[in-house]
Amino acid sequence: MVFGKKTTVGIDIGSSMVKVIQLRRAGKGIELEKFAMEPIYAGRDKKSGGVDIKELKTASIRRALEKAGISAKYAISSVSGESIIVRYIQLPEMPENELKNALRWEAEEYIPFRIDDVNIDSVILGKAEGEDAGKVDVLLVSAKKDLINGHLDIIKNVGLVPLIVDVDSFAFLNCFEINHTPEPSEVIALINIGAEITNINVYMNGNSRFSRDISIAGDSITNAIAGKLNMDFTKAENLKISEGAPYVEEETGGEEDTGLVASIRGTVEKITGEDLGDASQEMIAQKVIRNNLQNLLGEISRSIQFFENQATGRTVQKVVLGGGASKMNNIVPFFSKELGLPVEVIDPLRRISVKDSLESEVNSVKEMLGVGIGLALRKVV
């Protein structure tokens, strides 16, 4: 972790919400000093057309900075999405300056875009072992220039100087590593489920060893509910939250057996074609949630298997969830059962204190702060 002298703000620009976080040194520890979270589509239907998303994000950041009372001039932010390409490659050992030059030519083999259309960065993870001795493991990251330029425009438009542009999944990993202090031997799949993007990152030996973004996330479930029940996005989002993930074990007995009641009601509806009231919406929502979560779990399982089957891969031992969807009722036991692994939710404040006046607000949304805190931790005054 790097500590600097410039007062900076970590800005997590999601697809639905913006979070701004300012940390400071407090004795031997770190304190969350300033915080605010603002919706991007304030007062608007997220699915409506004719909106300039850059303007909406800019306005949201301005509101959040003002609400938090943040006057920092430097920003650390991040990007995500399927146009972010992360590759783990091996190259012969050579001086670092030569390695940087060689990477541009090597990148053409691994990046599915024109090399002139992307920004490239890399991190040397360490020397390879075993049969690959004499080589180094390198993390190669590329992002399309138009994505980065558009992102930088938003930061500059609110009067901030962009100090660092990170990748969401690495910021989330940074937050996890500093707060959870995992053992070097642990192999952990970090899953950050946002509104439109889910970040998957496998942590091993103190580094990221697999990273992938997929476009199945919280909004996938909400949109499916909205389409199935012909309701607006906000109502579908509330229904998703109230229903939560499927129960791992069906309850039995009496009037409390909601799973059995819902099944009987669904069968009667199919036979009679009649709508049995509000409970039928809940039953349909439950089915939609299950189907979409299983689609997401399928992608997560394939990603874990891909990592484990690589020559340098090892067996994943547990999963750590974050993001808005990690707040859904019953999601931890459901994911644990489906993946066959222990699952827990990240605690981004485990080693960070919170200013008294912010404690209630921050604790109510802390599962959503992994990326923002990971960014703010990059530079702490």
What is this entry, summarized?
By secondary structure, this protein is α/β, with parallel strands linked by helices. It contains 11 helices and 14 strands. It folds into 3 domains: 1-83 and 144-181 and 351-381, Nucleotidyltransferase, domain 5, CATH 3.30.420.40; 84-140, Dna Ligase, domain 1; 182-346, ATPase, nucleotide binding domain (Nucleotidyltransferase, domain 5).
Give the CATH topology of the largest domain. Nucleotidyltransferase, domain 5
Overall CATH class of the largest domain: Alpha Beta
Give the number of helices: 11
Examine the secondary-structure arrangement and name the CATH architecture of the largest domain.
Answer: 2-Layer Sandwich
Secondary-structure element string: EEEHEEHEEHEHEEEHHHHEHEEHH
Please give the share of residues in helix.
Answer: 25-40%
Rg calculated over all Cα atoms: 22 Å
Q: List low-pLDDT spans.
A: 251-274
Structural account:
The protein is α/β, with parallel strands linked by helices. The chain folds into three domains: about 1-85 and about 145-180 and about 350-380, ATPase, nucleotide binding domain (Nucleotidyltransferase, domain 5, 2-Layer Sandwich); about 85-140, 2-Layer Sandwich (Dna Ligase, domain 1); about 180-345, Nucleotidyltransferase, domain 5 (2-Layer Sandwich), CATH 3.30.420.40. Helices cover about 40% and strands about 25% of the residues. The chain has eleven helices and 14 strands. It has helices at about 55-70, 95-110, 145-155, 170-180, 220-230, 235-245, 260-270, 280-310, 330-340, 360-365, 370-375, and strands spanning about 10-15, 15-25, 30-40, 75-80, 85-90, 120-125, 135-145, 160-165, 185-195, 200-205, 205-215, 320, 345, 350-355. Strand 1 and strand 2 form a beta hairpin. The longest helix is centred in the C-terminal third of the chain and has 31 residues, at about 280-310. The protein is globular, with a radius of gyration of 22 Å. The model is unreliable at about 250-275 (pLDDT under 50).
